[in-house]
Amino acid sequence: MNIEVNSVEETQKIAEKLGQLVEPNMILLLDGDLGAGKTTFAKGLAVGLGITRNVKSPTFPIVREYREGRLPLFHMDVYRLEGMGGADLGLDEYFNSDGVSVVEWSEFIQDELPDDSLRITLLKDEDDDNRRVIKLDSYGSQYTQMLEQLTKKNG
C-alpha cells in the first residue's frame, strides 16, 4: 500500500491513525533516506498511542522508551549499528514485549528482526521537499489486517 502525503502534518496524521491500530508485540520498521521523515512518523505514531511526551530521535541512546500511552513505545534508531548488527544489544527483549517496537534504519539489523513486521518506507520526492510516498508492506496476517483497517480509516 502506498500513501502520498504533502506535508509533515499529513505524515503525522497517517502515523497517528496507525498508532490507534497497533497491538502489543508489533514491530514497525521505518526506512528511508536521511531527512525522509522517520522520526516525524514515530512522533505521529506516539500521538496515536496517547503518548504526550516529545518523541526525539534515539540516535545516541539507540532506544528510547515511552510507557505512558495505551501501549509502551520502544523507539529505536540503529543507524550506528551499520556493519555491526545488534545481536548483543538484547533488542529481541523489546520485540517480544507487551509494547510496540519502532526501528529506524532496520536494514542494519536485518538478521535480528522477526519475520512478521510492518515495513514503512518513506520516499522523498525529488521535486517537492514536502511530498513523500509512504510505502507500507505487511509481513504476517496481523499486519495485513491492520493495513486493511488503516485503509478504512483513511478512506
Automatic annotation (TrEMBL):
The record's annotation in SUPFAM superfamilies points to: P-loop containing nucleoside triphosphate hydrolases
Localization of this protein: Cytoplasm
Alphabetical list of InterPro entries matching this protein:
P-loop_NTPase (IPR027417), T6A_TsaE (IPR003442)
Claim: Cytoplasm is one of the keywords in the record:
yes
Q: Identify the main location.
A: cytoplasm
* Gene3D superfamilies assigned to the protein according to its UniProt record, in alphabetical order: P-loop containing nucleotide triphosphate hydrolases (3.40.50.300)
Q: Enumerate the UniProt keywords alphabetically.
A: ATP-binding, Cytoplasm, Magnesium, Metal-binding, Nucleotide-binding, tRNA processing
Family statement: Belongs to the TsaE family.
Q: Please state what the protein is called.
A: tRNA threonylcarbamoyladenosine biosynthesis protein TsaE
The protein's organism comes out as Dellaglioa carnosa
